[in-house]
Amino acid sequence: MKLSLGFSPCPNDTFIFDALVNKKIDTEGLEFETVLEDVETLNKWSYDGNLDITKLSFPAFFQTTDKYLLLNSGAALGKGVGPILISKFEIKNPKHEIEKLTIALPGENTTANLLFSFAYPEAINKIFMRFDKIEEVVLSGQADLGVIIHENRFTYGQKGLFKVTDLGEYWEERMNIPVPLGGIAIKKSVDRKLSLQVENLIRKSLEYAFGNYPLISDYVKHYSQEMNEQVMRQHIELYVNNYSLHLGEEGKKAIETLHTVYSSSRLYPLSGTSSGSLFL
């Protein structure tokens, strides 16, 4: 049986899925038609249910719970993993200035946007773009502030940019739970037994990757061509952890808490919500 599978080309995702999609483990008769895209593209596709299995930012998932359930394996959440608000110049009191400033964010449906609005609900002058364009937009003055994710959190200082707020730290200090960033969702129309099989295969794929670490496979390198191996490892070590193997009760609690914040944020339409568990 063949299932469509979408995830990002970032090292944390390719690290998790390498063994599965390249059949370094027994896929138990399943075939996966893979699509690698920026997570905001995957977010948008989810509204039409384009893929059987897909990486999603949590706000996108919360909008599509009529179509998808969250798998326990493959997620990105943890402590010290949140997006960072940056600027070209040091800003002493962002709370007092934020209403007047323009902020570049990596997609309307990203967890970064939700976490930014959690910290700065009064900020309304937002522009959305691919995550890898944000540093340059801030440096050129097209935006006063930017919210960066992925590998940019390791390199912004080298470009002369300043940290204004670690949005993950802000969340952790107030909620006392890990920061949920994104997860792997599967269509509700997929048979439950098959869904559990996929969940188990993703876990086995990650166990294989952990078992061979710190080796960086050619598959991960291929999709991270502009990164050196040190940055790839920093990326993997930050975003891939025990929660990626299995959410557990703490991981589920963090996601449910973020869902409550999402529901009260008024950033998104409530269409797509459904009763029952968010999880497989």
Task: Write up this protein.
The chain has helices at residues 11-21, 39-46, 58-63, 94-97, 111-119, 134-140, 167-175, 192-212, 218-222, 229-239, 242-245, 248-265; strands at residues 2-7, 31-36, 53-57, 68-70, 76-78, 84-87, 103-105, 126-128, 145-148, 162-166, 179-187. The chain is an alpha/beta fold and 280 residues long. The protein folds into 2 domains: 2-78 and 180-265, D-Maltodextrin-Binding Protein, domain 2 (3-Layer(aba) Sandwich), CATH 3.40.190; 84-175, Periplasmic binding protein-like II (D-Maltodextrin-Binding Protein, domain 2), CATH 3.40.190.10. The strands form 2 sheets. Strands 1, 2, 3, 4, 5 and 11 form a 6-stranded mixed sheet that branches. Strands 8-7-9-6-10 form a 5-stranded mixed sheet, sandwiched between helices. α1 (11-21) packs across α8 (192-212) and α5 (111-119) packs across α7. The two termini are 20 Å apart.
Overall shape: it is globular
Distance between the termini: 20 Å
Question: How many strand units?
Answer: 11
Helix/strand-derived class? alpha/beta
| Annotated CATH architecture of the largest domain | 3-Layer(aba) Sandwich
**Percent range for β-strand residues:** 15-25%
Reading the helices and strands in chain order gives: EHEHEHEEEHEHEHEEHEHHHHH
Helix content, binned percent: 40-55%
Number of domains: 2
Assembly status: single chain
The helix tally amounts to 12
Mean pLDDT over all positions: 94
Q: Say what the CATH topology of the largest domain is.
A: D-Maltodextrin-Binding Protein, domain 2
User: Considering the protein shown, what is the CATH homologous superfamily of the largest domain?
Assistant: Periplasmic binding protein-like II
Rg, alpha carbons? 18 Å
The poorly predicted ranges are none
